[in-house]
Write a structure and sequence with these properties.
alpha+beta; three-stranded antiparallel beta sheet; single chain; globular
Length: 203
């Protein structure tokens, strides 16, 4: 049905196609085929496509430029790498799927957060032109877990409690939710083997 609708629209040789959640009711395999078809149409015919979606993965696959909206207002618009790599504020970061956001203030040569301080002298590329208040993001892959008291050499170390363990069905991946006593929470992912090794080390 979606392919027929696209064909009817393309017969008119439009300059712009406006698609409002065109893949939302499709199964995964059909959605993937239609996404590839849309990519091909854009590349071969040069038609501008304005594609509205709540699916972040879909937007990442299709978009050359991304506009992030909330309550009918555009929060940030630009090339995909720019919007995802340098979100303008916390709302944009959360809407493009960035987890582990921590509020911080810049004091002297350190970032001050409720989870502790980060010495900026170790992060020379990040020291220039920082505003007074920023938001840190910690990718899940950058978080390493080890028993309390074990010495390690990291930019920041702190004590967190595991508040949630969520196996991701069919993937062999376990999502952990970690909570700091300052109120911030972080998420990271472990393979089944890593999760079993962590459980053994914490006994």
């Amino acid at each position: 049905q979606q392919r027929v609708a696209l064909a009817r629209a393309l017969v008119m040789e439009p300059y712009v196609l406006l698609l409002d959640e065109p893949l939302s009711a499709l199964d995964k395999a059909t959605s993937s085929r239609i996404q590839n078809e849309l990519k091909r149409i854009h590349t071969e015919l040069g038609v501008t496509i304005i594609h509205i979606t709540h699916n972040v993965s879909e937007a990442f696959f299709l978009a050359d430029r991304l506009a992030v909206m909330k309550q009918g207002r555009i929060l940030q618009e630009g090339p995909l790498d720019e919007v995802c790599g340098r979100p303008r504020n916390r709302d944009v970061a959360e809407l493009v799927g960035i987890d582990n956001l921590i509020a911080a203030t810049v004091e002297d040569e350190r970032l001050v957060t409720v989870m502790g301080n980060v010495d900026l002298r170790h992060l020379a590329a990040c020291r220039d032109d920082l505003p007074e208040r920023i938001c840190l993001t910690l990718p899940g892959w950058s978080i390493e877990l080890f028993p309390a008291g074990k010495p390690q050499d990291y930019v920041w170390m702190g004590n967190l409690s595991i508040s949630g363990v969520h196996p991701m069905s069919g993937t062999g991946i376990v999502e952990l939710t970690l909570v700091h006593n300052g109120g911030e929470s972080l998420k990271t992912h472990l393979s089944k083997r890593e999760a079993e090794a962590l459980a053994a080390s914490l006994r």
